[in-house]
Amino acid sequence: MNKQTPAPWVLCTSSNEYSDTWFAYSDKQGKLFEVSAGLYTGVDEQSSYEEAEANAKLIAAAPELFENEVKNLEFLEWLATKASEFNMWSDKVQQLRERISLTKAAIKKATE
């Protein structure tokens, strides 16, 4: 059972003259999460703004990315099993198993 707040998350922002703060809002749960804040007083303010905004978008997309990664893992495992059963794509099975291992590690990182 996932402990994470389910998708979708909607990205919104709050600004003042010194900084912007991005929030991810979960419509299903009615929760608001601060996902990225930036104080733009440095030399490269535009770069800092763009980086903070990009990070906020990535974080807001995380629930969907996670759900898709779990589904992808199921498919990759099925494909590796079928490829082995029918002795197909023998040159690609090792790559497939490596992708499965990396996918499992990413899911574990997100859930433990």
List the helices and strands and how they pair.
Elements: E1 9-15, E2 19-26, E3 31-39, H1 45-85, H2 90-111
Antiparallel strand pairs: 1-2, 2-3
Helix pairs in contact: 1-2
Structure description:
The protein has 112 residues and is an alpha+beta fold. It has one domain. The protein is 56% helix and 21% strand. The protein has helices at residues 45-85, 90-111; strands at residues 9-15, 19-26, 31-39. A 3-stranded antiparallel sheet has the order 1-2-3, covered by helices on one side. It is elongated, with a radius of gyration of 19 Å. The relative contact order is 0.13. The model has no long low-confidence stretch (mean pLDDT 79).
Described by strand count, sense and barrel closure, the largest sheet is: 3 strands, antiparallel
**General shape:** elongated
Q: What share of residues is helical?
A: 55-70%
Q: Spatial order of the strands in the main sheet? A: 1-2-3
Count of distinct structural domains: 1
Could you give the distance between the termini? 12 Å
